[in-house]
Amino acid sequence: MKRFELISAADVPAAAQARSVTVADAMRTKGGRPATDAVVLKAGGIDLLDLMKEGLLEPGRIVNLRDIPELARISEEPDGTLRIGSMVTLAQLAADPAVRARHAALADAAGRSASPQIRHVATIGGNLLQRPRCWYFRSLHHHCARKGGTTCFAFAGENQHHAIFGHDGCAIVHPSTAATALVAFNASVELFAAKRGTRVVALEKFFLGPSQDLSRENDLKSGEILTAVVLPPARPGMRSAHLRQGELESFDWPIADVAVVIEVEPNGVCRRASVVLGAAAPVPYRAKGAEAALVGKRISEDAARGAAVAAIAGAAPLGKNAYKVPVFEALVRRAILDTARTA
Amino acid sequence: MAREDPQLRKYPSGIDPAALGEVERNVPAGEAPPLAPNADLAWIGKSVARINGRAKVTGAARFTVDVKLPGMLHARLARSPYPHARLASLDLSMARLHPGVRAALPINETVGRAVETAAEGKPPSTRRVLYVGDIVAGVAAATPEAAQEALRLVRAEYEPLPFVTDLETARVDGAPQVFDGRVRGGGFTDGMAAAAGIAQRGNVRGPNTSGSRGDAIAGLAQADVVVEGEFRTQVQTHCCLETHAVVADWRADGLTVYMSTQYTAGVRSELAHAFGLPLSAVRVVVDAMGGGFGSKSGAGNYVRAAVALSREARAPVRLVLDRREEHLDSGNRPATVQRLRVGARRDGTLTAIALDTYGTAGVTLGAGVGNFAQSIYDCANFAIAQSDVFINAGPASAMRAPGNVQGAYALEQMIDELAEKLSMDPLALRDRIDPSAVRREERRAGAERFGWSRRRAPGFDSGPVKRGIGMAQSYWGANVHTNASCEVRILRDGSVELLSSVQDIGTGIGTVLAQVVAEELGLRPEEIAIRIGDTDFPAGPPSYGSLTTASITPPARNAAHRALRKLFDAVAPALDAAPESLVARAGRIATADNARSVSFREAAAHLRTESIGAVASRSDDYGGFGRKMGDMASAKSALGGVQFAQVAVDVETGIVRVERIVAAQDCGRPMNPRQIESQVHGGVLMGVSYALYEERILDRHTGHVLNADLEHYKIARSRETPEIEMVLLENYQGTSATDAYGIAEPSNIATAPAIANAVYNAIGVRVHRLPMTPSTILAALGRMPAGSALP
Ligand SMILES: Cc1cc2nc3c(=O)[nH]c(=O)nc-3n(C[C@H](O)[C@H](O)[C@H](O)COP(=O)(O)OP(=O)(O)OC[C@H]3O[C@@H](n4cnc5c(N)ncnc54)[C@H](O)[C@@H]3O)c2cc1C
Ligand code: SF4
Questions:
Q1: Of the candidates A156, A315, A326, which has its C-beta nearest B778's C-beta?
Q2: Nearest residue in A to B791, CA atom
Q3: Residue A18: which domain range?
Q4: Angle at B124 between CA B120 and CA B126, to 5 degrees
Q5: pLDDT at B791
Q6: Which atom of ligand 2 is nearest the CA belonging to A171?
């Protein structure tokens, strides 16, 4: 690993003054090597260090956000909105009583990501901003489209872990499990920039698919600090569930994960539904067909089965990932039925 | 010691307690007297705690990666990024100029791959690299960072050549050719040297039909029932947690190598030969080791590189492979395709086994699997045809029960299918066709512990999660290395030490040796100093082929016995007794009637010299070996092993969970049940992992290994660990001073087929490929979306 300078930001304005660039920009290669003068931000460092160890990122300076206490808190506003500081760890999020009580799907998604060791270091901000795990992307020897090259190696290659939806020129799956649940809850992110101050963007809009921009997964701008994830208050009759399936139960990425948030009338009829698939597409994938199939129905085996079929409609598996389709179908059906347990 | 004639003695024999009897053996002079069954012994057969357990859990144990020598340099290897290329030029001058760099060398000769005979008439061609990760140069520098940076300054120009990484493509005529000329051996099959004089066409070397017997075609024609199937297994990598590691220290007066190795003495002779040194000028040392499953048996290329760099830099050189290199270039278990036909009469009697198989060990030989089908069952007609297919991928090496793990996976499923067709219980069928008495007892005892009688019809459960149970058997030779020696010394203060170059690769042989010597001398195991893993001591056996315990415990006991006789001679006058009448018991030397005695320490004070000792080496098995080639031998009866598995299969997600394994195993006289259980746990876990998760994934288009890490190369972890129970037989045979054999490999053979048979019992569909991932299971169940490609 190249030598770099590590500095600590005392507060958000100081971090925003540090002239950081996004990691996507810092990874862009000049003459075969990534820029060596870039300034980048570090939260837990899990993803950042992975990229550096692989030689994909060689920053000159790293600005650590770990000494900014206000970023590491979860606070509740009078209307019930939860502001989750970007430096809150996945473990903290999974254990938070308010999140567990009202947003069970998020607590479960965060609490079953990665491994216990990683969850105690990984932050929600870093988790949303981590780069994809596509094995070609992570290989120094494959200069693929997302890294500025001309080909996507996955389409004709080893794509068993790749996308079944929305793979428009690049077939990554979005790596964040928590994002699946957060999108289902209509969460947004707060982004602070030195001159401009804070902007708030719905998470669903913040993530960018390959047809919008092939070189980055989100709309973070250089110099911006992600300060918080904002979770709207729970609504009456709201229930949620998150399910994930990995090949391994311990320390593995999901091959499929599903978050379901529904609102039911007192008479048991579903008023609103969001069904989001993770590990399915380059961004958390909203299964609109499944959502429509649930609205106006009572939650039952039949309703769940119908919604699950609707969820996978339009799936376009690649050579080696068709198995994901039935896995998603099973998970959507089971997650819908699971919401009954959080009532 | 006076020369004695061979003598007839009686030894316990048979399975304890079911069939314990006696056997008479003519044993050579100097052998310790027959040992009673374990129940009557003080230390042998007891679960004595590991002597280095405390050091390991406190971090005090010294692994090769912990070795630090004054002035030690750090080395890195430059490796090919191309699967096949001509190395047009190699310029190390920039690397040499980098601050801190002390040596940079091209690496031209490499071992561990098939050896090509020079194609006639052709001029010697430039160096070709044959796979991604092929070593081309090494650098050594004062810091790891400087070495890493210097690697980037190695200027290698490659002219890429056509390559092939896919087993099926490689077999086709006209496929890019890995080797230009004929290959004349090198590599291994079923752990043995590859046969010479086999046909070769393109990338296919074979078929090798040796081992066939009888007439399988006729046998199939005579059969009432024939089952057939094609089974595919994947490439598995060793994934040693302590990656391959060495510190080489070349000095004017000789070479010392600290290395994470399974065979100190073997590495010594390999390096002496490679560097033109006498054996006496090479010393190989290993203390604690973090995993060795076959790939750490020899010195390999990286150790040669470290030695050459040390010689060049005149300083010690440390070279530790990183996780990626560990996957790319430290050996693996070959992939195979096995086509089987098995014929039987209505009563189960086998009439024929025909096995047609090919596989790939990358750029070497060794994809054979025939040993298992050839050896395990009674069957007069056996036809075997096996071929090696070369591809541009890192060479395989022996890996825990090489060949038999793959072979058992296929044949044991076929036998399961045969039982069903014959409407016989799988255990009953094996009672008919399996000649092994130990496996018969293991089937009985294992089935009872497991609750085999609960077995239901295939696909019985109605919900999405279906449970099933299955069983499978293991075959592995009871191997012995006769070039296995050790010394036992008694010192004047009453302390005792055992010296041998045998290495403890984590299995606990040091503890077993302490038990053996303590038993013989009437002391406690913790009173025996165990000094092993150093070629300055008498040469011990390798730790492969599951032969360490079988090879080194008999000489340890005999050496202790002979040293004790010398102590008896020294102390007899003081006890006013004849030396032959003395016994060593509970820390004392006593007359047979126990009338007079002294403590062991007091006895030792009578020695004329600072120490007395005896060196012993492995005698042949009493009654002879079944086969012997050089230093390697196998006992007349092979080892058994029967495993039972319970699985749960979610037919909607394709996820298989192994819930329980019962492993009924034998290893002759069990020396330390707790350590044996550790080996069985390891073998079963590795089998679960092989059955469900592990697979090296090579990119067809670029030849790179895409999962050369522990993130996408999946290994069973804590939550994938089933309940594992061991049923351990005591099988006495009266074949050596300890009657002990091995356990490591046999415990790894039956697991995957037992799981596969249990999966069949759960879902009613047979799965013909490994690993049984969701994709494989869903495809087998016909649950893949219509029109999609198979995995
Ligand atoms: C074996 C393994 C398994 C895993 N399994 C899962 C899984 O199942 N599900 C899952 O979701 N993840 C998984 N992960 C990924 C892991 O959760 C993420 O790497 C981690 O959450 C990243 O968080 P971090 O705080 O360490 O981020 P860092 O590595 O510190 O940062 C990540 C990125 O975000 C940027 N950044 C961080 N904070 C801010 C901020 N406040 N403002 C602006 N930019 C910022 C950094 O510059 C960097 O680009 C796994 C990882 C491993 C190694
Ligand atoms: S899927 Fe995307 S990241 Fe992966 S190889 Fe293709 S372009 Fe690159």
A1: A326
A2: A320
A3: 1-67
A4: 140
A5: 40
A6: 1
